[in-house]
Amino acid sequence: MLGKGLGRACSGESAERLLDEAPDVLQLAVFATSTAAFRALADEGARFSVLVGHSLGEIAALVAGGALDVAEGAEILCHRIIALREHDSSGGGLLALGCAVERAQQILDLLPTSGAVIAVDNGPEQTVVSGPADALRRTSAIADAVGLSATVLRAPHPFHSPLLTAAAQELGRRLTGYGRRGLSVPVFSPILGRYYRDSDDLGQLLAAHLVTPVRFGAAVERLHRSGVGVWVEVGAGRALTSRVRAAHRAASVHTPLLADVDTLRETGRFLAPAATGPRIAPAVPTAEGPQATATAEGPNVTATAEGSGTVPTAEGAQATSADSPGRAAGADERPAAAQPREAIAARVRDLYATTLEYPEEVFEDHAELEADLGVDSVKRVELMSRLGLLFELGPRPEDLRVSDYRTFGQVVDFVVDSLARADAA
C-alpha cells in the first residue's frame, strides 16, 4: 500500500533517523512495537483490565483488545498514512508546552486568528499545540516570555487540528464499512472520552481522530478515580507512563521495553493472575463499551500504547516494581472484596450510565431500573452479564433472576455479595 518495504523498521534504525527519512515506516514500527509487546506480555500470562491508546496508538489498542486483527490494524494505518500524505500540505506541526491545558489555552487566546489549537492534553505538566508553523513560532515566543518551556515536536503533520480536515474526510471515505469484532479487553479512548462500544463505526471514529484533540490527562484522571493503580507502557520508552507519574506520584508504572528497568517476562508474570504476593484490588474501567476481563487475583492494570509522536520520548524517570514481581509499589493492596461499597457503586454506576447513555446522577440506590429508568428486561440481563465480566464474578448462578434486582442499589448489593463470596472461597 505504501510502496516500500518494512525492513528498515526491523533493522535497528533509530526512531530519529526514521522520522527524518521514512516517517511512514516509523508509524508502522510504532504500531508493530505495541502489538508485539502486548502479545509477548499476554504470552507470559498478563491480564489487563483496560487498554488506552494515545493518538495513533488507539489503532494498536483496538488490535490488542481484539476489535481488529493485526492485518486490519496495519491496513487502517496505511490508509491513514496515505490520506495524510495526499491531503496535508499545510507545513504545520506540533509544539509541547510545559503547562496544564488551561494555561496553554490562555496563550492561544492571545493569538485568536493564528490557527493554533490544543491538540493534546497530557496532564498538568504538558499540553501539545497543533497548527501552522508561524502560529507555533508565535506561541513559542509567548511561552518563552512568560517562563514556560516550549519544545517543537518532530511530527510529520499537525495532528488533531482542523488543518487535517481534508485528510480526515478522505480517511473516512477509505475506512467506510470497516467491521469489528467484540472486544476481549475494553479500550478507553482519550479522544472520544469514553470506551469503544459495540455499535461504533470504527472507520469514521478513527478518521475523526485526525481533527479531534487527545485528552490523555483527563483519561488518566478518570481511570485513576476508577481505581487503576498499575500502568504498563506497551510501547518503546516511557513517554506515556511519565505523564501518569507526573499526575500521580504513587502510581505503579512499568516500562518493559526499557530492559534496564523492567523486562517483558518480569512484567508479564507480575500481571498474571497467579502472581504471588498480596492481591491488588482490581480497578474497573468505567465502561461504555465491552467489559473488562481483569481477574481479582492479579493486579489491575491499564496498558498504554504510544501514539504518533505527540509526546516527547524521553521525559521523567519512572519508579517501577520489577524487583518484586508480585507486588506493585504504591498500589492498593486490599483484597478485592475489601473494596468499600461506595467504590463498587461508582464503578457499577459508570457502567450503567455509559452503556445506557444516561447521566450518572440518576443512578441512586432507590432508582427503579424499569419503572423509573425504562430499562427493559433484555437490557438488564445484558447489563448483569457485563457486570460479571467487569468484576470477574464467574458463571452466573443458575437460580439468578434478574427480576429480583429491581433497583440500582440491589444490583450494587449483588456485586458486593458476590465479591465477598468469591473472596471467602
UniProtKB/TrEMBL annotation:
One Pfam entry name: PP-binding
InterPro entries reported for this sequence: Ac_transferase_dom_sf (IPR001227), ACP-like_sf (IPR036736), Acyl_transferase_dom (IPR014043), Acyl_Trfase/lysoPLipase (IPR016035), Mal-CoA-ACP_Trans/PKS_FabD (IPR050858), Malonyl_transacylase_ACP-bd (IPR016036), PP-bd_ACP (IPR009081)
Native source species: Nonomuraea angiospora
Protein EC: 2.3.1.39
Keywords: Acyltransferase, Transferase
Single GO MF annotation: transferase activity
Region (Disordered): 276-340
Enzymatic class: transferase
UniProt xrefs under PROSITE patterns: CARRIER
Bias (Polar residues) ranges: 301-311
Recorded catalytic activity of this chain's protein: holo-[ACP] + malonyl-CoA = malonyl-[ACP] + CoA
SUPFAM superfamilies in the record: ACP-like, FabD/lysophospholipase-like, Probable ACP-binding domain of malonyl-CoA ACP transacylase
Carrier domain residues: 342-419
SMART domains: PKS_AT
Protein name: [acyl-carrier-protein] S-malonyltransferase
Origin superkingdom: Bacteria
